[in-house]
Amino acid sequence: MGSFSLFLVVVLSLFTSYAVCQFEEFISIDCGGTSNYTDPSTGLAWISDSGFMENGKSVEVENPNGNKVQYQKRRDFPIDSRKHCYTLNTEERRRYLVRATFQYGSLENGDTYPQFQLYLDATKWATVSIYEASRIYVKEMIFRAPSDSIDVCLCCATTGSPFMSTLELRPLNLSMYATDFEDNFFLKVAARINFGAPSEDAVRYPDDPYDRIWDSDLIRRQNYLVGVATGTERINTTNNIQVGTREYPPVKVMQTAVVGTEGVLSYRLNLEDFPGDARAYAYFAEIENLGKNETRKFKLEQPFIADYSNAVVNIAENANGSYTLYEPSYMNVSLQFVLSFSFRRTRDSSRGPLLNALEISKYVQIAPKTDRQDSNVVNAIGSLSSDIVLERKGDPCVPTPWEWVNCSTNTPPRITKINLSRRNVKGEIPNELKNMEALTELWLDGNLLTGQLPDMSNLINLKIVHLENNKLTGPLPSYLGSLPSLQALFIQNNSFNGEIPAGLLSAKIIFNYDNNPGLHRGNKKHFKLMLAISIGVLVILLILFLASLVLLCNLRRKTSQQKRDENGISGSKPLTGSSFLRGGSLMDEGTAYYIALSELKEATNDFSKKIGKGSFGSVYYGKMRDGKEIAVKTMTDPSSHGNQQFVNEVALLSRIHHRNLVPLIGYCEEEYQHILVYEYMHNGTLRDHIHDCSTEMKLDWLARLRIAEDAAKGLEYLHTGCNPSIIHRDVKTSNILLDINMRAKVSDFGLSRLAEEDLTHISSVARGTVGYLDPEYYANQQLTEKSDVYSFGVVLLELISGRKPVSIEDYGPEMNIVHWARSLIRKGDVISIMDPSLVSHVKTESIWRVAEIAMQCVEQHGASRPRMQEVILAIQDASKIEKGTENQLKLSSSGSSKPQSSRKTLLTSFLEIESPDLSNSCLPSAR
Which pTM was predicted? Predict the structure, then answer.
């Protein structure tokens, strides 16, 4: 016994020395504070943020909560488009807990409570919404440091001004909070609860050497514990608890618990920012002295998941005795906004269930930062100016770009423009500029730049360069004249010398080189020779073009005459008067295949088999002489509007080709009829398969996801793959057709518009289909690609629910599928919107992924909706989840979702870890 006591003393002394070492590495910043001090209640050293932040102002907090010094002031930031970032030093690949807190205090006259965004590097951490003056809002994230520093940024206020009260960084030990997913995900703390707490006071440092905040279960705040089961009692002990396992919860937390004396222990907990994927830990320690024949065994009853709920928790067995920690866990579980959980005593147990603590964290996908090479270059250029020190905080592009750069929407973002005109930039332009391949504009005029131009030959997208009014020297590199995208180069008032590259003197480039005495043009004879050769080549090409044009016209005239002769019709000709688009007729398009009316009558058996109705006419089945099956759409609207739809469809489909767009085979303009000929789609429309009860083939969830992905790719091609981009304007399930292999193709382009014409103004009447029509487009007549995104969001809701977009029977006279689904999803209830044929046959997490992106698609304002590329990625994620092949959020082979034994698992397999080695260093390196 004496040796065991000695062992405990040694362990405690080692742990104490480690805690002291850990404490020394804490960073505790008082935002807005003006001096450094030590908090008497915790012993933590706090420092002013004056060394971290130059922006914003220190503000006295009116009526702060309590007498904590760190909440007497706050730092307020301007309401502008910039982000305001604190940079914290880290050790790469080490795990940390970062915590930001916010207490606003009383409102002054006319003020409103703030709402703004909080970011960790480029990853959105939280939306900070203040509703109570005295409440301290706490946001915590656990992360493995991606580099030697990390940025905490505030931006994008919707009301009030962004502010912060405190910012804290705490290093963690060993493999604490390690997951299989930490390369791609941060852990956002959603709940950390101390059950059986003696008061409402939270437990933190020094009781927790890592300074985690364990909230008391006595707090009854909004979004906190409610619905405690009857018979729940609070117990505690003064005995020491052995907590040296994986997560090292504080002994003080484990010395209290709640027990279900009537055999059931249940709670209901609201989780902020859920539904989502989570890591959930339960902490158990037997702190009652059970009799010789007494046992405490219980099972997870709710939520019921067969693989997990069958495992029996026997604390004494799992923890190898009383007063010892046992911490089973879900390493990856999909949780909804409302988490109801309960434990029930087994029949062979004499005592009810027990719970000491609970910890839930949400997986937050790490957003990509700006391309590293681009970041290095703009930081190097920015360091040459003392005027922009305050404008170089955080990532150059995310969440908002620096004022002097423009960024692309690529992943990762690339920098497309640098604008440092007249910003006191001194020194030489960095040679690394050649790595910025996405750069289109470079504005460095009016500075004090010296030296020669760096190599920019790789900048194939560079269009505009302003280097005038500097002190640059040396020759102009020859490649400048051959940069493929260069449109304008301004270098006047410098000291360049040598011969001007011939390419810069061409008419296609605006080139100003005044006041560079050392620069001169090339040999005039050589220039005249090149000019003569160029003119000669142009004359020859012009002659060849005119000859080809004459030949083509003769050929078409003969073909047209031959067709008229075959049909016995004189004077019948294409209606070019109604078919002009951008100054030419459909016959001039050259890519659509003209099919004679007689050939179509033969193929369709004189239009005898009607198979559907399009946006402007009936559709008939046909079969060409070569056996090719076709769908023939005839226009029944003789008005100019109908003609315009016909022109649109032919003109658009003649120039776009994509596997997920219905291909146009040909068209016909004869006898004053307008006819379109498409490839026949054997399996009809998506609407038939979802809503037609007579359809034999019912779609399972994977088939629906595949169809959704196909259709989304078709729309994404229209939005980004065409120049100018095309807006469909009538996306709906009846315009998504299915081929013989059940692959989806988008059809019916009669209402489509070219984006460059219509982004700012279109016709006064919004066109589309009721139930799918974008309300923003309907209200203000401003058409954008996000109108298609809204309509596609409705399609996704149809795929999930099997319901029609508008139905008085389903939703009542004032509702539609969007209002109905939104109200249920906000309650965390996705099951109620699922098609009954899918229930019990799909993974709920996969449904949630699609429901989440669908809700984003149908946001009221277009700016809040995702791009089709983001929609495609979400659908692909859902497919991976459903197939069980997802790479980022799947359980590893060592963490199977099936139970192994009641001794080593409750929710997933128990994780064995090595004991910490505290003898050699303060903090072992993260593994």
Answer: 0.58
